[in-house]
Fold this sequence. Notes:
By secondary structure, the protein is α/β, with parallel strands linked by helices. The protein is 37% helix and 27% strand. A 5-stranded mixed barrel has the order 5-9-8-6-10, surrounded by 4 helices. The site of adenine has 13 residues, from strand 5, strand 9 and strand 10.
Amino acid sequence: MAVIGIMSALHEELAAVLAEMPGEQRVTVAGRDFWVGQWQGHAVVAVLSRIGKVAAATTATLMLERFGVDALVFTGVAGGLGPGVRVGDVVVASGLVQHDMDASPLFPRHEVPLYGRAIFETDAALSTQLAEAAHEVLQEADRHLGPDTWARWAWGSPQMHRGLIVSGDRFVSTATESQALREALPDALAVEMEGAAVAQVCCDYGVPFTAVRTISDRADDAAHTDFNRFISEVASPYSRAILAHWLAKRLTA
Ligand code: ADE
């Protein structure tokens, strides 16, 4: 049976996933707890990614080397960069770039040396499946979040976007910085701190990968407001529901 790896960026998200995996076994490697079990008849390994590109790359490498996962999905939150990418929306990555990679003038800005490219594409089939699941969940977002939560955050209709996510070792929390990112990478929809590193590791191993991020802020001067509350009330229920929809439709093989 194919083994699915789930990397969650946040404790609350991982807890929501583990609640769906009764009887999971903990295996500790390199200070990380990997949870091995089943979800909806699929063999699943779930782990906290840890924060930042190096920590996430180590976690991803262990997922592939020690646990032999056949596909890897990353869930977490991100700051919205693209026009119309608002708090409460979900972005499914079609590709990822390290926005802080710059070996110029030896290599073009953002290009990862010796890979000959800046963008690491996600697996098309996996991304389409997750995008469909995200779209279905967002159509009934109030049901997944609960009516009180929905009313408190006072949104219109949350949207699902597909496109470029950029990653770097910075929490982007000023309008100046997010504007600079928009100018350097005009196609970027969202910014976070791990995805492009995990995409590079999965590329090295030839393992299908995609990333799903709930927009928690606009990567501007208000980026830290209500962050923790958003994660527990919105991002974690979204992740759990999106993964559950996806696994329910995915055939066991
Ligand atoms: N994750 C969520 N919001 C973010 C931001 N503004 N910058 C980097 N990573 C994030």
